[in-house]
Amino acid sequence: MSRRNKITLLAMVIIGALILAYSMKDIKLSVLIHDFFTLDPWWLLVAFGCICAYLLIEGIITKVLVSNRVKKFTFKDALRVPLVEQLFNGITPFSSGGQPGQLIVMLQTGIDGGRASSVLLMKFVVYQAMIVINFFISLVIGFHFVASKMHFLALFVLFGFLIHFFVIVGLLMIMYWPRFTKRVTKILFYPVKWFVKDKKFYAMQVTLYEKIDNLYEESIRIGRQPKLLLKVVVLTFFQLLFYYLIPYFIMLSLGYDSVNVFMVTSLHIMIVMIISLFPIPGGSGGAEFSFESLFHSFISSNSKLVLAMILWRLLTYYFGMAAGAFALLIKPDKVDDSDKPA
């Protein structure tokens, strides 16, 4: 990890501590500690198991996609990919560092850059598609609740949905209509020329077209393997399901046994969508505020609400970054990318 990334990681930890301190300004520390020691440890362990399952399943997805074309790609190296992704997602605005971080990890194993990029692009397409589908379902279940309780958050929810919807539409256009996509891209990309030199502009344009071609070629390859695609889709569905269920199990650990699992899960899906709109790494500030705003109707105790928010952030944000930092220290196994699948 570079010195700049280490500084950013430290800054995010400090920001998180400051947000935590602000959230606790009206709550006695003794009350929070008492609530913590009255938690049901088994439900909390289930919540921890969910985030572990989320990361493990993404490792399995990576292994499935890479091993389809490269032999001897170990699960250890496949698991390093989502862990490092969590770290760089957490320290970069709009989670923009996740994809490059994954690419670096795969290159370290000896996988060809073009092949690694194709795998990551396809994984990203399926992931985005499942997010949009899950989010649409959550809108049907829980949007009326958000609109009635927090009108301004409802606008963020709709805006987040539109952004992710257009992302998946753009990706599908690349996969099935690449020539038209290039024409549209050329028009939309042209204003960049006003701010950079011609040489750099055309180099960026060539790179963009190459990525479009890579995704198109990968989509054709995967399209010829429907069983593989279906396997990735099913795995991604369960990966996201485990992640979205985390707040529900945290609430059970706090003693709120009568909460509606569908409503709580739907609200968490919306929170994740809202977080993606905040430019601060990890959506810090916006994540905590959204969680408290949406879940205060379910958790009547202010101290338990803050405790639930702290546990949620520890599991869904800080745990992933810590695991990613550790994964960077693990030496990768080398593979021969000239190998063909058996």
Automatic annotation (TrEMBL):
Q: Where in the cell is it found?
A: Cell membrane
Asked if the Swiss-Prot or TrEMBL record annotates the protein with the keyword Glycoprotein, the reply is: no
Checking Pfam families in the record gives: LPG_synthase_TM (PF03706)
Question: What is the topology of this protein in the membrane according to its UniProt annotation?
Answer: Multi-pass membrane protein
Its annotated function is as follows:
Catalyzes the transfer of a lysyl group from L-lysyl-tRNA(Lys) to membrane-bound phosphatidylglycerol (PG), which produces lysylphosphatidylglycerol (LPG), a major component of the bacterial membrane with a positive net charge. LPG synthesis contributes to bacterial virulence as it is involved in the resistance mechanism against cationic antimicrobial peptides (CAMP) produces by the host's immune system (defensins, cathelicidins) and by the competing microorganisms.
The kind of enzyme this is, by top-level EC class, is transferase
Q: Which UniProt keywords apply?
A: Antibiotic resistance, Cell membrane, Lipid metabolism, Membrane, Transferase, Transmembrane, Transmembrane helix
Q: Which reaction does it catalyse?
A: L-lysyl-tRNA(Lys) + a 1,2-diacyl-sn-glycero-3-phospho-(1'-sn-glycerol) = a 1,2-diacyl-sn-glycero-3-phospho-1'-(3'-O-L-lysyl)-sn-glycerol + tRNA(Lys)
Q: What is this protein called?
A: Phosphatidylglycerol lysyltransferase
Membrane spanning stretches: 7-24, 44-66, 124-146, 152-177, 228-250, 262-284, 305-330
* Family the entry assigns: Belongs to the LPG synthase family.
* Record-listed E.C. numbers: 2.3.2.3
Principal subcellular localisation of the protein: membrane
